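MODEL INPUT / OUTPUT PAIR
PAIR INDEX: 1
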Amino acid sequence: MLRDYSPLASAYIQADVGYAQPTQTTPDRVMLDSPATDAMTDLTRLTAVIILAGDGVDEAHRRMIQRGVRLLLVVDQDRKVLGVITANDVLGEKPVRIAVERGMRREEVLVRDIMTPRERLQVLAMEQVQTAKVGHIVATLKQAGRQHALVLECDDKGRQRVRGIFSSTQIARQLGIAIQTSVVAQTFSEIEAMLAR
């Protein structure tokens, strides 16, 4: 059966050899009226950076630095999305507050303790994103007071999957301008409400 197939020549691997990884090339510059997909990290072309809910917050921070991202998808052992964790979560007061409340060291705080769980995530539909402009995404992030937005799509069986991620930092870099997405308190009562959280 194998008589028509001759073996291929083989060789030894050299030192300092890397490996192929999916790459996505996004335009260096976009305009507000550019297609929104020009500013989206497309997870069909770039591997998502993930972390387990049981990993420590310091590991999450290391992974963000290593991969140059400010958001990790939090997944379970089957790689199902449980939520997200951002650099603001890791570097903000959340880990310290949790540590104090539970009488533990900050290093013992886990991703699950400070992540935004799946049921609290607001997402965008890929169908809308495909016809939207970058300006629509900027307006959406500003209105929500968020730095990131996840994009969902459904497969042919109706199952959802995270297809992409928008980052205000990436969009700002591509636009060449600063984007302020965080909600700023306008009155004393709003400041008090923010402090009470």
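PAIR INDEX: 2
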Amino acid sequence: MLVKLLKYEWRGLFSPLLILLIVLGGTAALTCGVILTITPKYNETIAWYSAMALVFSIFLYYFGLIGCTLGTTLIIAVRFYKTCYTDQGYLTHTLPASATQILNAKIIASILAYLLMLLAIAATIFIIFEVGLHHAFSLMSGEQDELRRIVEQEFSFILSEFSDVLGISLGGYIAYLIFFSVIALFANVVTILGCVSLGQLYAKHRIIGAIAAYFIVQFVMQIINNICFIPMYTKMMIDSYNSEVLSLFGILSPTLNLSLFMAVVVAVIMYFVNLHMMTKKLNLE
């Protein structure tokens, strides 16, 4: 039954998500197109307009990126609200599935939608960088080999110094970031859905209630995160006083881990809030 619920959820999320992906791809393609038009053969006036066009396209891509990220959040929240707490909820809650199965399907589908958007963002950033780098090399045909050698040397130097500066290998750092991001993504999705459920406590203003619940939860989380930073600052002061040198990762990782743990705790609470609202406090519009 879970697989069928996932297919149903994915069909509902795919169309609006596809629109966002097209917007993201369009802004990225525009940026790449502007980069490829830049040439040193332009006179000063045309070069100025070309530079302004590049700046404009980069800003457009940036706002498209932000819009797609926020849009994904909005799509997930709106679909959860409509299919659980409006007239469509009658169909959802009459399915031969438990509230736990319905909630799990929605969480998994939402995480997949977020992951797809994040992968698309990473892909467009990589493509823009590669297009810009390749075009820069092509404009310096006479110095191309030298420029490539310099870039490779700098990259090798960064790799060699990475472990000394951060206190962790590049592979270990990437693995840590992936683990951190996946757990944080899961916690964020569950928290968003929980805020939508909490908004149903305000019978006459459910959407406003959901938005208010989200900002209140984020405010509380920000306070908790600031509290989590106290051990880091204390440790830095003690080490500075004792003339000890710690790696950057050694200083930051305990705080990041504690912050992630608190986010997971809030997500677990929100998970049971969702179940409670979908079973004990269900009041469809």
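PAIR 2 NOTE: The longest helix spans residues 44-85.
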